[in-house]
Amino acid sequence: MLNRQKKCLREIIASYFGATCEELCELGGIGEKTLRNDIGILQDALQKYGLFLREEKNRLWIPFEEKEAFLNAYEEIIQEDDQQQLASEYEERKIRREAGLFCQKRLWPE
What domain of life does the native source organism fall in (predicted)? Predict the structure, then answer.
């Protein structure tokens, strides 16, 4: 999940009345079409926890009684994302290291 999507979700959860699409576009520096795509990604991520963002009159919100569940889901999403990022960074370093060793062997044979 991208940082702007996490920021968008955090803003919706933190706001008592939710956030308008215009506010979220301004927050992320994105257009409405990008926001709609991001909302779809957020809905997919939250569906795993049985949660859904509500939309009414161009405002995204969550029911107050579900706020704790949304906060817990947000924390888990962040943790999963961090773990995936660390794993992909590890793989990238491994590939670079192996590529560097390959280049060393070809350029400077023993």
Answer: Bacteria
Query: Please, what is the Cα angle at 53 between 52 and 58, to 5 degrees?
Result: 150
**What CATH number should be reported for the domain holding residue 84?**
1.10.10
Structure tokens that stand for 101 in this block = 């060793």
Per the structure, the count of domains in the chain is 1
**Can you spell out the DSSP letters for the chain?**
--HHHHHHHHHHHH-TT-EEHHHHHHHHT--HHHHHHHHHHHHHHHHTTT---EEETTEEE--GGGHHHHHHHHHHHHHHHHHHHHHHHHHHHHHHHHHHHHHHHHHS--
Least confident of 11-25, 44-58, 63-77, 95-109: 95-109
Q: Stretch 83-100: mean pLDDT, rounded?
A: 71
Entry pTM: 0.73
